[in-house]
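ok posting inputs for the S-adenosylmethionine job
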Amino acid sequence: MEQLNQKLINNFIVDDCLNILPQIEDETIDLILTDPPYNILNTNLIDFENNKDFISLENEFLRILKPNGLLLTFASWQLWFSLFNKWKKLKFWYEMIIVRSNGFSMMYKKRPVNRHEYLLVFYKNKSDIFFNEREMGEYKKPYERGLHQGVNSNAHASSHKKGYHKNEDGFRKPTSILKMKTKNHFKQDERTKHPTQKEILLLEKLIKTYCPENGLVLDPFAGVGTVAIACNRTNRNHISIEIDQQWFQEYIKLKEKEG
Ligand SMILES: C[S@@+](CC[C@H](N)C(=O)[O-])C[C@H]1O[C@@H](n2cnc3c(N)ncnc32)[C@H](O)[C@@H]1O
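and the output
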C-alpha cells in the first residue's frame, strides 16, 4: 500500500478519481483541496444526483484524511446543498465567499451576473487543526486602539487597561471573504482553455494556510493541475487526478512554463 502511495505522490493521474482514491493509503492526506464539477452543467462526469458517487467519495475522503485533516471544496450553492444533505460523516464547519474580479455565467437573464462562489470547509476531527492565519490575513498600518478614541487617554502608561490594544506589526486576521481574479485577468502565461480554471495565487495562499510544509494535498478533480502547481511553488506534495486527457496536456504546458 505504501508503495502505491509513492507511485501517486507528485503525480498527475489521468483517470476517474473513483478508481484511484481506493489506492491511496489510510490517513495520509493533510488537505483535500478541490473544485468538483459544479452540478449546474449537464456535462458532469460525477453524478452528484446519484447517492452512490457521493457516498463513495465521502467514505474515501474520510479514510484517507489524517485525523486532523481538512477538506476544502469550491462550490456553487447547488453543490453546497447536495453535500450538506448527503455527507453525514465528514462534518461541515464553515464557508468562505470567493469574490471574483469580474462577473461570470453571463447566460443568466433578468438577474444579476454572478461574481461569487463558495469555498466550504469540512473536517473529520477538530483537534490539532493546522491553520496558519498569517498566510491568509493582511498586513496594513499598525494601530493603537483606545488612544485616539478617547477611551483611555493615558493608554501608553497603562496598556493593560481594558479598551487598549496595540497592533504592532499591522497584521489583520483573515476574514471569510477571499478575492480571486477571473481568468481573463490572470497572467497571460497562466491562462489555459479550461473553462473553470482557478487562480494559482489564491490556491497558494490556501495551501500555505491549511497544510504544513512538506505535507500532502489531494485534488481529485484537478482540471489543468492548478493545485499541483501551487503545491510545487509552496513546497508541499500533491496527488492530482483528472479524468480528461486534454487537461493533462494543458497541465504539462503550465508546468513547463514554471521552469
Ligand atoms: C471545476 S473543474 C476543476 C478545475 C481546476 N480547479 C483548475 O483550476 O483547472 C472539475 C474537473 O473535474 C474533472 N472530473 C469530472 N469528473 C471526474 C472524475 N470522476 N474523476 C476525475 N476528474 C473528474 C473534469 O474533467 C474537470 O476538469
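notes: The CA atoms of residues 21 and 178 lie 29 Å apart. The mean pLDDT is 88.
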